UniProtKB/TrEMBL annotation:
It catalyses: a CDP-1,2-diacyl-sn-glycerol + 1D-myo-inositol 3-phosphate = a 1,2-diacyl-sn-glycero-3-phospho-(1D-myo-inositol-3-phosphate) + CMP + H(+); 1,2-di-(9Z-octadecenoyl)-sn-glycero-3-cytidine-5'-diphosphate + 1D-myo-inositol 3-phosphate = 1,2-di-(9Z-octadecenoyl)-sn-glycero-3-phospho-(1D-myo-inositol-3-phosphate) + CMP + H(+). It is a multi-pass membrane protein. Homodimer. This is Phosphatidylinositol phosphate synthase. Mg(2+) 2 binds at residues 66, 87, 91. HAMAP family: PIP_synthase. Mg(2+) 1 binds at residues 66, 69, 87.
């Protein structure tokens, strides 16, 4: 949802800087890999240590900059199937670093008890369900359907958990992160269900020939 609304703004803001990068010999794939490394580094070096102001700020900046590679690819005519594949794969690694780091923070900073158990469990659930959202879309496209619907795209999930983490950094109780993880996990599950139902409608009556688990 947020990602769709923000693409026009980022295009207007970043097209000229992206063209400057192109003149310097920077390719979209270089930006994709560099952005992922930066995101993983920022998450791992801030969130497990409880740096809940610096971490969200850095990750928000990197999330905004994440659109640079796509803008650069479109502006220079360098869009490719491999670039789209690489971008999606790198996004999963960056997201895993964020939610994995939150699980690590909970395991090392929260006292043993229900709050720690729920926080770790919800962080892992958010990680898995968040990965299932783009997988459902990719798998739908592989069988000739479209599944771009849903209430929680990547930007929505990261903004929601980023606000929860920042709130704790500014003094909110620790359970705000737990609640944020619960919201992200629930929204991701709803999105997966929405996409499954959408694809079921589109493929109703289509022969099942060739149904396999090859996408795994």
């Amino acid at each position: 949802m947020l990602g769709n609304h923000g693409r026009g703004l980022t295009k207007a803001l970043f097209t000229k800087p992206a063209l400057l990068l192109a003149r310097a010999g920077i390719t979209p794939n270089m930006l994709t890999v560099a952005g992922t490394i930066a995101s993983i580094t920022a998450a791992v070096l801030t969130i497990p240590q409880g740096r809940f102001i610096l971490g969200p700020i850095l990750l928000t900046c990197l999330l905004v900059a994440d659109s640079f590679d796509g803008i650069l690819a479109r502006a220079t005519g360098a869009s490719s199937a491999f670039g789209a594949f690489l971008d999606s794969t790198m996004d999963r690694l960056a997201d895993g670093a964020v939610f994995g780091s939150l699980a690590m923070w909970a395991a090392t900073h929260l006292d043993p008890g229900p709050l720690r158990t729920w926080t770790i469990s919800l962080a892992l659930a958010a990680l898995v369900l968040g990965a299932a959202v783009p997988y459902a879309r990719a798998r739908a496209e592989s069988v000739g359907a479209k599944a771009s619907v849903g209430i929680a795209e990547r930007t929505d999930r990261l903004v929601a958990i980023g606000l929860a983490v920042l709130a704790v950094g500014l003094g909110a109780p620790q359970w705000a992160i737990t609640a944020g993880l619960g919201i992200v996990g629930t929204a991701s599950l709803i999105t997966v269900i929405q996409r499954v139902l959408t694809v079921r409608t589109q493929l109703a009556g289509v022969p099942a020939g060739g149904r396999t688990g090859a996408a795994e």
